[in-house]
Design brief:
The chain is globular and about 50 Å long. About 35% of the residues are buried. Helix 1 links the parallel strand 1 and strand 2. It has 9 helices and 5 strands; from the N terminus they run βαβαββαααααααβ. It is α/β, with parallel strands linked by helices. It has a 5-stranded mixed sheet with strand order 4-3-1-2-5, with helices on one face. The protein has one domain (about 1-245): Glutathione S-transferase Yfyf (Class Pi), Chain A, domain 2 (Up-down Bundle), CATH 1.20.1050.
């Protein structure tokens, strides 16, 4: 069985969604950033980087969202979360997710984690002021050149979709107006609606579902296509959710 170490409101949501979509047999261990559990000896033994997500498998531990998403797609091919039979198309999927990881997420991190790159307070403040422009430029590339619709790579839902959905939830906090990027905004609404209704999930995970309840701002986004149009995959039988576990000695999580 797989074990996902995750934290709320982080990019680990993408891996969590992918596990659900794939119908994986997995358990959860929630890491509290508020209690600095990512720097605890127990978690550093899992991921010396002190970050989430981390996925424990029977072959070892994987970190970094793009790698975890590819592993899920390849390990559970029946879920059809990537075009594994087409080398070029699969490379395009990885190129998109690499862009999210190495460029968009890094630009986003300048808003609250400038200390990773600079010690000077003015330099950190300058990075923070730049975030709406730098993050917006990333979405401009996605909107105009990368997003095909209705899902990221076209007609098929892939591991690109939960990743884009996860990061796109931070647009407003990054000072980016979703209205500038209607394809990304529509995609976010469709993914959220589908998850909230449980239509795309093999199992309903309460902690996962909570992360899809966001502000009412999305109601103002264009939605020319809805979940009933896009969600064509057959319904799968539900299975009991495996409960989240905690690091040894950690206090119960507050949801």
């Amino acid at each position: 069985m797989l074990t996902l170490y995750y934290a709320a409101e982080t990019c680990s949501l993408a891996s969590h969604i992918a596990l659900e979509e794939a119908g994986a047999d997995y358990s959860l261990v929630r890491i509290s950033f508020a209690r600095d559990e990512q720097h605890s000896p127990d978690f550093l033994a899992i991921n010396p980087k002190g970050r989430v997500p981390a996925l424990v498998t029977d072959r070892g531990i994987l970190t970094e969202t793009p790698a975890i998403l590819v592993f899920i797609a390849q390990t559970l091919p029946k879920a059809r979360l990537a075009p594994l039979e087409n080398a070029f198309a699969f490379a395009e999927v990885q190129a998109f997710n690499s862009f999210l990881c190495s460029t968009l997420h890094v630009a986003h991190a300048h808003r609250m984690r400038g200390h990773r790159w600079a010690d000077d307070e003015e330099a950190i403040a300058s990075m923070r002021r730049k975030v709406p422009d730098s993050v917006g430029a990333c979405y401009d590339v996605i909107e105009r050149r990368m997003f095909r619709g209705p899902w990221v790579i076209g007609q098929s839902y892939t591991i690109c979709d939960p990743y884009l959905f996860t990061i796109a939830q931070w647009m407003e906090a990054d000072g980016v107006d979703p209205g500038r990027f209607p394809n990304v905004a529509d995609h976010r609404v469709v993914c959220r609606s589908a998850r909230a209704s449980g239509k795309r999930s093999r199992r309903n995970s309460p902690d996962l579902t909570r992360q899809f309840k966001r502000t009412a701002a999305d109601a103002e986004c264009r939605l020319p296509i809805g979940p009933s149009t896009l969600l064509r995959r057959p319904k799968r039988a539900t299975r009991p959710r495996t409960g989240a576990r905690r690091l040894p000695g950690a206090r119960p999580p507050v949801y």
